[in-house]
Prior knowledge:
The protein is of the alpha+beta class. About 30% of the residues lie in helices and about 35% in strands. The longest helix has 23 residues, at about 40-65.
Amino acid sequence: MQCTIRWSGEGMTFIAETGSNHLLAMDGAPEGGGRNLAPRPMEVVLAGTGGCNAYDVVLILKRSRQEVTGCEVRLTAERAASDPKVFTKIHMHFVVRGKGLKPSLVENAVRLSHEKYCSATAMLAKTAAISHDFEIVEQG
């Protein structure tokens, strides 16, 4: 896996070009010299972690032959007060939508993502207490 980060030359805006040839912008807050044009780098880390978990949950549920029609994960995080300002707490709330979803299979999918499959969660768990819960929304 590769990624190249380039400073735009203005403020604190950076453009990442991923190994799969996609672009991602990042910027800083105005008080840090940025122009608030894009997410902060640590927001991207948190978003990537949520994406990793949501991906796993959907894949596991599909493989379990569940009729999943939607999945979102709402993340809240706390960071250390001093540098390096690592994540110290992360909570993930999953909202899984589908028809006739079995709560035990949803719970298992969330657990497997956290304990076995999500690489981002495994890395962040070195500094952060990570918790999760879920709700199921029936869609007929």
